[in-house]
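User: Please fill in residues for this 417-position structure.
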């Protein structure tokens, strides 16, 4: 198609030339040192065109000849740049393939080629990326000293790149990841604190911060970070629920007294304070710290709807209440009566009701619940022994010595499964 177009253009030019110049009878007379030459106008114009083309070709030829050294230099630089780029790509491929020693050598070869070529030293981003890849390889090889040197070099060079923030952010994140694998939470948190606020909220940065805060035993900060990760969909919903529950429990375990536990409880998210397992753990901790009335206050809202909860939640709440029965108020009696039917199917709940009724000096009802719990093999051995021991105390109170001895003997026996 292109040849046809050129042929048509040539034909049009021939027609135009023949029409314009075919009937041109003009002459051009040239006088030179007594000589006179008459030539046709057409020949004169053709000569001018040929002279122009010759001069233009001569100038271009001289320019190409004079520029040949510079072109050769650029070609050599381009060749070295291609070799350096190929070395960096090879290093990346070897790194992904787990050949860390070879990957480090390939990256250093790329850096050496760039350092030996002054024209390439301005590409600080290339050098920073090579140092980052070398640092990652050395980290896998457990060469911490040289790894840290390459990381610092990458951070220093990142400030000279065209995209300084992206390169520096990558170096900071890699440094934090390396520190975590070294079990150095303080250094990891320091590297993460150097990130801009926007970068610090990215999923990868939050994951690293979560690991660092847990390693540093900072459960409150870890809980905040995990909540941000869950908001950014950094976990599946089930994993997020389990992690948030674990961190909330760790946060409560960090309390040293009732006042501190109370403050931590108030700082928990509303969803955490509605989680039955978290509430049960908080109540147990509060009871252990001597504030059993407040522990029961935390349990009361969930106890009112205990029939709607899962078996694990019921067991946790029952265990928590059983450890906070001292001074049980009369207002708990309707709640206990409402769970009587459920207690017949749940031995842990039956044990708690028996202990609670005993605390309220309702010996008859307490005895029935305790017998139900003690004879239920689904209940663990420790709590069954607790039930037998409590039954022994009730029998002693009623001056039934033989029965009390039998209950105490059952409490002391090994498991009869």
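Assistant: Residues filled in for all 417 positions:
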């Amino acid at each position: 198609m292109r040849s046809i177009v050129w042929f048509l253009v040539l034909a049009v030019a021939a027609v135009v030339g023949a029409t314009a110049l075919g009937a041109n009878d003009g002459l051009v007379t040239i006088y030179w040192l007594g000589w006179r030459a008459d030539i046709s106008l057409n020949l004169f114009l053709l000569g001018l065109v040929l002279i122009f083309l010759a001069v233009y070709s001569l100038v271009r030829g001289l320019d190409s000849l004079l520029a040949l050294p510079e072109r050769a230099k650029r070609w050599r630089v381009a060749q070295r740049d291609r070799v350096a780029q190929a070395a960096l790509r090879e290093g990346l491929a070897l790194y992904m393939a787990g050949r860390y020693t070879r990957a480090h050598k390939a990256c250093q070869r790329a850096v050496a080629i760039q350092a030996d070529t002054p024209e390439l030293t301005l590409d600080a981003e290339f050098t920073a990326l090579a140092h980052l890849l070398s640092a990652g390889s050395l980290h896998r090889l457990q060469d911490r000293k040289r790894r840290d040197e390459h990381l610092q070099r990458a951070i220093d060079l990142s400030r000279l790149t065209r995209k300084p923030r992206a390169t520096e952010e990558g170096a900071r994140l890699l440094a934090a990841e390396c520190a975590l694998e070294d079990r150095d939470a303080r250094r990891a948190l320091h590297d993460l604190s150097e990130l801009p606020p926007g970068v610090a909220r990215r999923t990868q940065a939050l994951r690293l911060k979560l690991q660092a805060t847990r390693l540093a035993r900072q459960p409150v900060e870890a809980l905040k970070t995990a909540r941000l990760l869950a908001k950014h969909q950094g976990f599946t919903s089930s994993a997020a629920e389990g992690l948030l529950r674990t961190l909330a429990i760790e946060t409560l375990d960090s309390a040293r007294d009732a006042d501190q536990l109370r403050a931590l409880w108030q700082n928990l998210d509303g969803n955490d304070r509605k989680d039955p397992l978290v509430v049960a753990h908080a109540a147990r901790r509060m009871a252990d710290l001597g504030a059993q009335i407040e522990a029961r206050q935390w349990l009361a809202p969930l106890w009112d709807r205990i029939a709607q909860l899962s078996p694990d939640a019921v067991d946790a709440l029952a265990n928590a209440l059983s450890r906070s029965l001292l001074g049980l108020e009369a207002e708990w009696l309707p709640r206990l009566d409402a769970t009587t039917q459920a207690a017949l199917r749940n031995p842990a709940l039956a044990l708690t009701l028996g202990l609670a009724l005993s605390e309220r000096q309702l010996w008859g009802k307490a005895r029935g619940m305790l017998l139900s719990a003690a004879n239920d093999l689904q209940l663990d051995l420790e709590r069954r022994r607790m039930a037998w021991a409590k039954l022994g105390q009730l029998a002693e109170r009623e001056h039934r010595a033989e029965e009390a001895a039998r209950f105490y003997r059952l409490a002391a026996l090994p498991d009869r499964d």
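For context: The radius of gyration is 44 Å.
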